[in-house]
Amino acid sequence: QVQLVESGGGLVQAGGSLRLSCAASGRTFSSYTMAWFRQAPGKEREFVASIRRSDDNTYYADSVKGRFTISRDNAKNTVYLQMNSLKPEDTAVYYCAARWGGISPSADAMDSWGKGTLVTVSS
To answer: In b/e form, how buried is each residue of 62-94, taking b as 16+ CB within 10 angstroms?
Structure first.
């Protein structure tokens, strides 16, 4: 399994942007499909975006499509989440996850998790 560490969270005004990073340990990073999930206070963890291991195909939740972009740099063992046009409802702890397989929006399908980074969007 890979070890994951997120960074880049913080406080931003509505309409602003943030870029989250997730650094992975291990030499097999390119073999993992990577994903971002988020969990708002009092709510269940939800899928945000994923990027497939084989061809970098991406998949997004409808709520972030057109505003968020997931990307990866296999040379740096890092996956990113560029978040633009942020809304107060994007406020949550954002988690990076890795899956030894294809894209899945299910948290139960993930093999490894980071500890999360908090994003707060003020109105």
So the answer is: eebeeebbbebeeeebbbbbebeebeeebbbbb
pLDDT in tens, 13-33: 999 999 999 999 977 899 999
DSSP the chain: ---EEEE--EEEETT--EEEEEEE-SS-GGGSEEEEEEE-TTS--EEEEEE-TTT--EEE-TTTTTTEEEEEETTTTEEEEEE-S--GGG-EEEEEEEESSS----GGG-SEE---EEEEEE-
CA gap 76, 23 in Å, rounded: 8
| Cβ 2 vs Cβ 97: under 8 Å | no
Structure tokens at 47: 């899928």
